[in-house]
Amino acid sequence: MAQHLLIVDDEPDMLILLKRSLEPELGCRVDTASSGEAALEKVRSGDYDLVLADIKMPGISGLDLLERVKSERGEEITVMMMTAYGHIEMAVEAMKRGAYDFITKPFDHDALVMRLEKAFERSRLLKENLRLHHECHATEMFQELVGKSAGMQRVYETIRMIAQNDLTVLITGESGTGKDLTARAVHALSNRSKRPFIAVNCPTVPEQILESELFGYKKGAFTHAVRDKKGLFQEAHTGTIFLDEIGDITPTIQTKLLRVLQEKEIKPLGDSRPVRVDVRIIASTNQPLAEKIKSGDFREDFFYRLNVLPVKLPPLRERPEDIPLIANHLLEKHCAELNKPLKRFTP
Q1: What integer pLDDT is reported at residue 1 of this predicted model?
Q2: Per the confidence metrics, is the pTM higher than 0.70?
């Protein structure tokens, strides 16, 4: 693909001359703009490798244009300035603000071509560096999980192995270790990936409401049940239901969920007939379930039905080498969301 140059100058004859001479000489595509305002519109809508702009222009000056381009596009576009002999101080100021180079008018054609070739080479190297960064970044990510530590590599391998069957998964780990992202990764790599993924945050729903939310109810089952309502298990039919922080649910709900795991059927409130469901269950907890079993707060038979395919997530303190990756991933994500130039943390 030919490299793309935008020339900005308020002198029409200069634009015509440069376009005619530089396109064949450099083998690039040349666009022109006669003002800083027009140049900004082109930069926002086009894919330019290099901008060559005059410093002294009415309206948006070359320095203003430089600042706008750097603010909106960061290092994606190389900017080179043109200036008359009397404006060398302004050209030096432009270099301080991020211009790659400047050339004085009237300029020697061969010298201009050589400087532009170097500027294009800089742009090419920057884009190659960005491409390699993304390729490297891809090896540091698995679905939406970030990390290249040995502990996370084991997690990724486990997810790959368990995703392709329909057995129940129990994800354990401290708060913030990525249990939700792990559940979504298992679903995304499974044969059910095109089907529903329903997440339920168990501790946030009171027991009485949780039962009706999970299993649904028939009209008249209780005072405000004015119509039949499907439960979340029915909503997740043929897909996956993710029961987040299942260690916090009461023994009553545990008993009802045990029936689902054993029989693959639910019973909506107020209904005498069970309903068959085809759902893969993924559960997670940050609770020490072994201790809760000893204290009688968690059913042992329910635990063994859940813990068919266990996934244990390591806390961040056990994988400090992943901290810079996560920090830069979040910074990159929020720069994109806020439409800001890409930034990096220093070591």
Answers
A1: 63
A2: no
